[in-house]
Every structure is written in structure tokens, then in C-alpha cells.
Specification:
Elements: E1 6-14, H1 20-28, H2 32-40, E2 43-51, E3 56-64, H3 69-74, H4 76-85, E4 100-102
Antiparallel strand pairs: 1-3, 1-4, 2-3
Length: 109
């Protein structure tokens, strides 16, 4: 990651009980147009990890400092993905996953 052009970003999401296997399956079959959209938006090195006891999902990505989250949220592919995932996680009324941004407290390059 080039710190002049990219930044690290981490957040939490909440999975509904009993759906971890289905969540993983859907991500194992992630749509090519969604991965292309994320890359075009400047997102790289994106991973999501499950805390099985709580159902919390920890997500980490590196993204361009020019990242436009609002544009990504409006994109039809993203809206369709949210609709497809809505039954598995805590979401806002518009289908966007509830995401709690995390502050970086330490980083060792």
C-alpha cells in the first residue's frame, strides 16, 4: 500500500444468527461485476473475518484516498448486492449493511 495514495479502513458489521455458512458461500461466489466495481472504486486488499461467538464481522480494506463511498453506495451493482445479502445481516432500511467504523490504534508496517 502506498500511504500517499491509499489508506487503511476497518469496520464491523453484524451477521444474523445461524447464517455464517450461507454468508461465506455467497462471498465464495462473489459476482465478477461486484469485484470489478470495488477495484474501480479504489478498494484493494479487502477481507472480512467472522467472530463466531458474537456474529460480528470484522472487515478490513485498503482504499484510495480519493475513495467516494457515496458514489459506491448509489451504484446499481452495490444496491443489488445489498439486496442479495439483506437476509443475512443487520441492515439499514435501504438495505445498506450497518457498519461501525473502527479507529486505527496501532499499525506496524
Amino acid at each position: 500500500m502506498n500511504p500517499d495514495t491509499h489508506e487503511r479502513h476497518a469496520f464491523l458489521m453484524m451477521l444474523n444468527p445461524g447464517v455464517a455458512g450461507e454468508y461465506k458461500r455467497r462471498h465464495d461466489e462473489i459476482w465478477p461485476d461486484l469485484t470489478a466495481l470495488l477495484a474501480e472504486a479504489g478498494i484493494t486488499n479487502y477481507s472480512i473475518h467472522l467472530h463466531a461467538e458474537t456474529g460480528h464481522l470484522f472487515a478490513y480494506m485498503e482504499r484510495a484516498k480519493t475513495f467516494d463511498g457515496d458514489a459506491l453506495k448509489r451504484h446499481p451493482v452495490m444496491r443489488r448486492w445489498w439486496a442479495a445479502m439483506r437476509d443475512l445481516m443487520k441492515t439499514h432500511p435501504d438495505g445498506e449493511p450497518v457498519a461501525i467504523n473502527l479507529d486505527e490504534m496501532f499499525h506496524q508496517p
